Amino acid sequence: MAQDDLLFMTASRAAMLIRMRKLSPVEYLEAILVAAHQQQRRLNCFTAILDEEARKAARYAEQAVMDGAPLGPLHGVPISIKDLLDVQGTPTRHGSVIFADAAPATQDDVLVQRLRDAGAVIFAKTTTPEFGVKGLTDGPAFGVTRNPWNLERTPGGSSGGSAAAVAAGIGPISLGTDGAGSVRGPAACTGLVGLKPTLGAVPYETARDAFGNNVYAGPLARSVTDAAIMHAILTGPAPKDPWSQSGKDQHSLSPRLVGDDLSGIRLGYIRRCANPRVSRDVQANTEAALKAYEQRGAIIEEVTDAIDWIELEGRILYQANFTVFCAQYLPRWQNQMDPVTLAFMERGAQYSVADFRNAQFARGRLHRAIQDLLARYDALVMPTTTRTALDVGFDAANDEVEVDGVKCGITRLGWNSALYPFNLTGHPAITIPSGFAADGLPTALQIVGRWAAETDMMRLAAIQETARPWAQARPTTSAENPASRN
Q1: Per the residue annotation, which of 80, 182, 244, 434 is the catalytic one?
Q2: Among 38, 135, 140, 469, which is least packed by CB within 10 angstroms?
Q3: Are 389 and 155 within 8 A, CB to CB?
Q4: Catalytic annotation present for 248
């Protein structure tokens, strides 16, 4: 198998070849590790590459195959983990200089343990901005993580390291987290599939506010199947996440979605959320994706309801949380923290308790508004972001996003306004590639499903994957910078 084909193979295919003894987990891992070290200098997407730990796990995986032992769905597959989640024996640095000298974690996060139990080989920790605070991946602690499609663009954030790695063929899948779009935004920037589950479907035991949680964990992958496999592994209750306690409550696939005939399926098209514009290229690719559904019989209806997307209230909840949480670090670390973190904290400190409580009430209203829409539609569809990836030097605290040359406000208004609402409402959302823009970078379509209807949502994504495939598109992995569609 050609080296490039090996690196860009899906996790599901790799696991199948390993089970059939046609692919050595040890040799597969070595190819990934070589690519990781080579591309790290170019992309800066890892905080740690766990060579020896991963080699030991790969040897164990290979022996299990030879012994005929029971094998999990990701047996022998190399996977990276965002550096907000604990991996035993490795420091969790949270993208911050505050934790530069952190001790190694004494145990795996529950989700990392579930991946290990499924046979995965954990080979790296991936970069994240400080505490996952922004939609770009850079910071004083580690520098700038770059987009493999164009090194002068961001891979998004805060799971940007995971996205850059998978897009560049350094592991077929990665575990990210999503507090305001932090899986789906990076996936959109790098031409990947990114899944945010229903609130409680995948436990998030490290949430600081367990009951008011809006942070989720999910896969960044090159195929819908790989995302679905990881999601199935991660789901189920965990004792420290109250939202997960109802158990593995996913709806079965709707019979109307079993085949390619979508007759009777109604999709609500949301042209814009809180954003004033969508780029011409994103709009064209979105319409092409919707046409693929229409050609299979789906009814596409533009949503004209006047929805309050609570951008201000969402910002209050987000920034006030960082104000309170990070206050403990200011006396010692203020001069070394990310300026964006500090700016968000300063703004969050201006809000009152009444502002915060009213924002929580607004969250409930937004949930009910989306529930009303999903009583009429089988799913909602919309552009994931308004334009392609921003420049790596973009200031997420102060700069305005330009869409086709027009300034459209801060990132939550100008770029990723379709992401944060569904962190607040709890509905599952998946982003998939929708094509390329004139600048050579990927664009994306977001599908939002009914509560616990991940299976239906992923089936709609898979239909789009078949109708308008994207796996053949790969960024260059050489030292060259220009975007490639080879």
Answers
A1: 182
A2: 469
A3: yes
A4: no
**182 classed as catalytic:** yes
| Strand 143-144, strand 429-436: pairing | unpaired
- Asked if 22 is an active-site residue, the reply is no
Token digits for 254?
């709707």
Mean pLDDT (whole number) for 408-430? 98
CB distance 172 to 371 below 8 Å: no
pLDDT digits (tens, 9 = 90+) for 41-57: 999 999 999 999 999 99
| CATH number for region 12-467 | 3.90.1300.10
φ, ψ of residue 140 to 5 degrees: the values are -60, -25
217 band by pLDDT with thresholds 50, 70 and 90: very high
Instruction: Calculate the CA 113 to chain-centre distance.
Output: 19
pLDDT score for 379: 98
Find out whether 65 and 44 touch, Cβ atoms under 8 Å.
Answer: no
Mean pLDDT of 225-243: 97
Q: Is residue 395 left, alpha or beta, with left meaning phi > 0 and alpha meaning psi from -120 to 50?
A: beta
pLDDT (0 to 100) of residue 338: 98
Closest CA to 360 of 425, 449, 427: 425
Q: Quick one: average pLDDT of 359-382? A: 98
Rounded mean pLDDT of the chain?
96
* pTM for this model (two decimals): 0.97
The whole-number pLDDT of residue 1 equals 78
**Catalytic entry in 80, 82, 96, 159:** 82
Q: Kindly give the interhelix angle for 51-66 and 11-19, rounded to the nearest 10 degrees.
A: 50
- Per-residue pLDDT for 226 more than 50? yes
